[in-house]
Amino acid sequence: MTEDFIVWRCLHSGPLSRETIDQQSPxxxxxxxxxxxxxxxxxxxxTKTYGACAIIAxxxxxxxxxxRFYPKAIxxxxxxxxMCLQQDHAAGPTEDFTDRDFPPxxxxxxxxLVVHCMMTGSSQQKVNPYQRRGIGTRMVRALIEWAKANxxxxxxxxxxxxxxxxxxxxxxxGHTFWKxxxxxxxxxxxxxxxxxxxxxxxxxxxxxxxxxxxGIPPERAIDRLVMRLDLKCT
Length: 234
Fold this sequence. Notes:
By secondary structure, the chain is α/β, with parallel strands linked by helices. It has helices at residues 32-50, 72-75, 135-149, 164-169, 175-180, 201-213; strands at 54-59, 62-71, 112-120, 154-160, 173-174, 184-190, 223-230. The protein has a domain at 32-152: 3-Layer(aba) Sandwich (Aminopeptidase). The longest helix is centred in the first third of the chain and has 19 residues, at 32-50.
């Protein structure tokens, strides 16, 4: 991602390029003009202030993988919401979030980066040729090296139990993925966004069914597992 090519949307509809970034597919329900304006200004400010906020994987001219990350201090600012770039507040940032004062790196005491989401290929494609090829692993390793070089002390990432649907349709990964990269379990609690079963009924049901199939208590399927990597120890 560069200043003249801001990857302002995610890979839900497939790989992106300069030619397709602004093309809306029939499955896209997002308001392009609305989100493009908000996200572009936000990502430009994040990059200018902190040097980067995403790791990108390419196949030729196409972006086929992305890992978005932010300073934890930014995620905790009023108006940040869940920082999802394809949703309104409270799942995403407020419209005026970019206008807030972002602390310079030298003034951030909590030197923690938070992985917001990570995707390879598209969750909406029946066949995803980019999954299970080590792309996610390479992006995380690139983030680790970048974080060390820029004096960050730890990285945190949300995860779930190792269930197929987590890899198929979300921007998260199972906790085993993170453990293999040196992360450890910091905290575990019911995911706050999955407490409303009426809103996520089908997703939660699938989580529970997949958990039962592999011998995990179904009530643990909606747990949010916070994984952490201490960079001073690596």
